[in-house]
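Feature request disguised as a bug report, sorry. It would help if multi-protein outputs had a clear separator. Right now it looks like this:
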Amino acid sequence: MISNGLRVVVTGAGRGTGRTLALAFAERGAHVVVSARDPAAAGRTADLIARDGAGTAEAFRCDLADPDSVRGFAAALAERTDRIDVLVNNGAGFLPGVELGDASDDEIVDTIAGAATGTVLLTRHLLPLLRASERPDIVNLVSASAEVGNHRLAAHPAYYAAKHAQAGFAGILSHRLRAEGIRVISLYPPDFVPDGPRGPGDPLTARSVVECVLFAVGQPRDCFIREFHFEFVGESDVAQSGPPGP
């Protein structure tokens, strides 16, 4: 069960799934640290929580592709709190394009730095605060593109590379932090839609992904759910696919 007073950090929470995650934790009484590359977007999410949520929120800028920004964000949190209970590594930019030449060098560097290097650095710098919690969880929103042999997403090869790196990091972190009681929970959703019907033949929705996160975080501490994998709906090919949610 998710209790009042939980301290949660959500990256990429200025819009889309990150915002939905932040709002969902706040609805359950959590104090949510909302971070995004765009500080105005992070502020809008925090304002929504202040207006509608049972919990509270603070907004911060954090550009996961910029190590200085990541370090600054982590340092600001260390000045404000003595612990973090849940870190949700959600922030990562989607990069479209099937051919290597479909993206510039800068776009490739930014994509890999944000999803891979940014996730590693932020987790590294926030680990002392997670270790100070009595119920620490690290949640990673990865992607079905990180599953071995999955070629269905219409994403640039650099996006595949970034997500495979993120998955490898999550796997070894789960193994090595298990003895400390720190749970590392990773989700590998396929393409999903912001909202809609939720029947067995319908596409996966962002709300369903969020509810998987809430379910895993809310389990007793002896329950380590390492990964969520999802079935695809239909047999559409890569040309008909799109980014994994907003």
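(second protein starts here, but nothing in the output says so)
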Amino acid sequence: MMIKKSILLLICLDAALIGQAHATNVDVLTLGSLIPPQSIETFKADNPSIDLKVRPAASDYDDLTQRLLRDNVAGTVPDVIFQGYNRSELTIRRGLAIPLTPFLNQDKAWADTSYEAISNELCRSGDTPYGLPYIVSVPILYYNADLVHKAGGDPDHLPNTWPEITALAAKITTLGDNRIGGYFDYAAAGNWTFMALIESQGGRMMSADDRTITFNGQEGLRALEIVRDFGKAGQIDMPREQAYQAFSAGTVGMLMTSSGFLKTQLKQAKFDLRTTPIPITDNGRVPAGGGCIMMLARKPDQQKAAWTFMKFMESMPVQHMVSDVTSYVPGNRKATAELEASIAPQDARMASIRASMKAGRWYSFPGDNSLRITDRIRVLLQEVVTLRRSPEEALEEMTKSVQQLLPK
């Protein structure tokens, strides 16, 4: 009897080893908070033939992109990457991303019944999809309704123009007790919030062919004036993490930043928290924050396994799980529609759901100096919000600096 058990145990061990030997490896690179651990556990349990490995997380999309470029030089590119929308074009231009048209055509039934991209501008080059929109954040305004009321505002009728918004921030600052009326998140990765100010007016950063700067017109100047007005209203220059903590502690009246932080703020804030979309014109849009799932695998068996994982992360249950954990809007529009139908109109998440309907491409400057350009713009935004440089001076210097760093 003991011999039979030993033989049975050996057979089971051999089977397990054979299964492991034939497992297809899929390496994934992402940000730390974007993949709920329970989703990975579920995927591994449902797909034992795929050996999924999630690499150490990047801190943000710029860090992720730098790591990707280093991996490319070293020959260790991951099979799947959760790339920021603003860096997806760079990933495509470097020849790293695999076109997804054959996979979508092959799985047409899935695409027709279970998946719809929240925006056709995202993760594409021309008409070719190179990624599946995974999550979407949009710039929104967070309000401490208690401070709004103390400053003489009406939390049930929050302002809907920038002059009214920054005027309210100034009133909150005058309440004293180290109150800060408002905080504009100028240091967001890829100049995201600054681009939002321009594009929400109908402006664009560059011409469609990426050859001509277009942010240096009235929309760009007005955007910098709004940044300056936050400084005039009492914004203190501090790291964004510190600003978020100050807001949740009740000392900052309003935040203009990503909707992706809503879950954390709702958990930490001890006051009545309200949200609104930022002002946007009829022909305006907002750049989609967040990222798409891109396939970089080259071998057919790894591509097949990578596609299985990508579809799983776009499934309704996972999309709802990610949205619940992170406050991001699902990149699968079908999941977004279900979410909108399930929550109350006054729910704090509704601002980002509505704004996401006008979400478009998160622009990234062309060429190898893209990261240097965004860093230079960030420095100039800091000088404007701290009132060390006027909007006019900053716009002139921004135009000059970007022009020098663009491809010749």
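Even a blank line would do. Unrelated, but nice: The chain has two domains: 24-137+288-360, 139-287+365-405.
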